[in-house]
Specification:
Blueprint (H helix, E strand, L loop, with lengths): L1 E3 L5 E9 L5 E8 L17 E6 L9 E4 L3 E4 L7 H5 L1 H23 L16 H20 L15 H20 L9 E3 L5 E3 H19 L2
Antiparallel strand pairs: 1-2, 2-3, 2-6, 3-4, 4-5, 7-8
Helix pairs in contact: 2-4, 2-5, 3-4, 3-5
């Protein structure tokens, strides 16, 4: 986090965050070699070692060295990584969702209404069928991964109008967004019913959900 001291010189707030307890403190430092080229900065091997001077220290006087090992140096903002360390899977799904939602809805909306009965080959499903399938998949996988009840909605059909299918798809993403806010990683090892009645873990379904979002976008963007 960049700020300006009383004498007008830019300082950098560096946060040293512990992976274990995630306690952190922020203090103003000059980041050597980035804000001021004349100060020393070195990078050794794979790890990074930065020499930092506190605000107002004489040039060349090393005040501290922060070694990047099991800690994270946040040089742009003081950000707690509690969510990422305690619930990496559910946090990742929540981070991925907005982009997947935007792209898939946009791809469906771009298809002309009269083309919703289009299919690439005679053996493949129609575009309208694909949209109905995406809606059902969102409702199923988001509920299973997050361990929440699936929404009670009217069944969508591939013969529904474009407006109806687009609306249903958007509603299913809204459900996913709400369900994933309630999700944490504590239940990932639980088993539940998957496709075809197969017993799978919620972790397995979470991976399938992320992969399905990418797969379905590739199909809608054909």
């Amino acid at each position: 986090m960049l700020s300006f001291s009383s004498i007008g010189r830019p300082t950098l707030t560096a946060c040293l965050i512990s992976d274990a307890a995630c306690h952190f403190s922020c203090k103003p430092w000059f980041l050597a070699g980035i804000l001021f080229p004349e100060q020393e900065h070195r990078q050794e091997g794979i790890g990074v070692e930065m020499t930092l001077w506190p605000t107002g220290s004489p040039r060349g006087e090393e005040a501290n060295e922060i070694e990047i090992g099991n800690h994270c140096l946040a040089v742009t903002s003081c950000v707690s990584v509690t969510a990422q360390t305690q619930a990496p899977v559910s946090t990742a799904l929540r981070d991925i969702l907005p982009g997947r939602q935007k792209n898939r809805v946009a791809a469906v909306e771009a298809m002309p209404a009269e083309k919703f009965n289009y299919k690439p080959t005679s053996d493949q499903i129609t575009f309208g069928h694909l949209v109905a399938h995406m809606t059902e998949t969102n409702n199923l996988l988001c509920s299973k991964a997050a361990a929440v009840q699936a929404p009670k909605v009217e069944e969508v059909k591939d013969t529904d109008s474009k407006d109806e299918l687009v609306s249903a798809l958007k509603t299913s993403f809204d459900f996913c967004s709400d369900a994933l806010t309630k999700m944490d990683d504590s239940k990932l090892a639980e088993t539940t019913e998957g496709f075809g009645g197969k017993k799978v873990t919620r972790a397995w379904l979470s991976l399938v959900l992320a992969a399905t979002w990418a797969d379905h976008y590739a199909e809608t963007a054909m």
